[in-house]
Amino acid sequence: MPNDATTAIRRLRVHSGLAAGPGGFLEMLRPYRGLDMGVVTDLAACVVGVLPLLRNPTVDRELMNDLWGTLHWGRHWGLHPRGMLRSNNLITEADQATLDAWLTAMGWAIAMTLDGQDRASAVGELTDLGLDCGEA
User: Fold this and answer.
1) Is the terminal CB of the chain with fewer CB neighbours within 10 Å at N or C?
2) Which of 14, 98, 12 has the alpha carbon at shortest distance from 51?
3) Whole-angstrom Cα distance, residue 44 to residue 122?
4) What does the pLDDT look like over 107-133, one tens digit per residue?
5) Do 105 and 121 contact (CB within 8 A), yes or no?
6) What is the 3-state secondary structure (H, E, C) of the chain?
7) Cα dist. 114→22, 24, 33 in Å?
8) Digit-coded pLDDT (tens) for 54-78
9) Phi, psi for 6 (deg, rounded to 5)
10) What distance in Å separates the CA atoms of residue 1 and residue 49, rounded to the nearest whole number?
11) What is the domain partition of the chain in residue ranges?
């Protein structure tokens, strides 16, 4: 799990599929082999690890691309009715609900941080889902 912003950014690139490496979030969805709590916990830690950078007056374009792309493709592939997992009947309704909760909580953390909210407000939903948010 990342313990600094540099490591979080590097791992986030793997999760977004834009850098090679094991255990990426989008890699978990394609080909789909089920949800992996370890992968999602690592992604959540990466999101929390970069939250301080989202408080800056300007935000790095590649960082935003990694965040946006991971959430967008996760939703599209796993939750959209014509996405590859649902259209091929590869994901259960229970896994869809879990994936939706995870993606929503990460999106909330990003949006609340960009909006200037405090860390506790930003990561509350992640914590409620049992995702370790560390001390970022």
Assistant:
1) N
2) 12
3) 12
4) 999 999 999 999 999 999 999 998 866
5) no
6) CCCCHHHHHHHHHHHCCCCCCCCCHHHHHCCECCCCHHHHHHHHHHHHHHHHHHHCCCCCHHHHHHHHHHHHHHHHHHCCCCCHHHHCCCCCHHHHHHHHHHHHHHHHHHHHHHCCCCHHHHHHHHHHCCCCCCCC
7) 29, 24, 33
8) 999 999 999 999 999 999 999 999 9
9) -65, -45
10) 10
11) 5-128
Tokens 């935000």 locate to 59
Tell me what pLDDT residue 85 has: 98
Distance CA 55, CA 53 (A): 5
pTM exceeds 0.70: yes
Closest C-alpha among 29, 16, 15 to residue 90: 29
